[in-house]
Amino acid sequence: MPAAALKPKPLPTQSTAKRPVLLETPCAPVAKRPLPPGRPREWYVTHNRRLKAMRLAIALLDSGVYLPDQASDETIRGTAELIGIHPPSRTTCHMVRSLMRHNR
């Protein structure tokens, strides 16, 4: 009798992509530091937008959304609501998808 026939079959598992996964919040928030003074306002806007896009991209990856095509604006905004941040703009949603694309 082959050895493969003697091994019990593992129980079927359900992929995290097929069902929603509860997002874990970090144990303690990172201490915020003040941004450097004297930069143009646009720099601060872009910097904060990048931080928000990174947070959203990480949350989407944790919830099982791995491809940019799976991350519609509605999906990204729903994730933002889940993790407790303001709904992102179209520009930020685009940035989230580009982060997911470039990190592959």
Characterize this entry briefly.
This protein is mainly α and 104 residues long. It has a domain at 38-104. It is 48% helix and 0% strand.
Structure description:
It comes from Streptomyces cathayae. The protein is mainly α and 104 residues long. The chain has a domain at 38-104. The chain contains four helices and no strands. It has helices at residues 3-6, 41-62, 73-83, 90-102. Helix 2 (41-62) crosses helix 3 and helix 2 (41-62) packs across helix 4. The longest helix is centred in the middle third of the chain and has 22 residues, at 41-62. The protein is elongated.
Strand content: under 5%
User: From the helix content, strand content and strand pairing, which structural class follows?
Assistant: mainly alpha
Indicate the radius of gyration in whole angstroms.
Answer: 19 Å
- Strand segment tally: 0
The biggest beta sheet reads:
none
- Our measurement of the CA-to-CA distance between the termini, rounded to an integer number of angstroms, reads 44 Å
- Helix-strand string: HHHH
Mean of pLDDT: 81
Number of helical segments with 4 or more residues? 4
What is the overall silhouette? elongated
Unreliable stretches (pLDDT < 50, length at least 5) are 11-17
Q: What's the helical proportion of residues?
A: 40-55%
Protein name: Transposase
Organism: Streptomyces cathayae
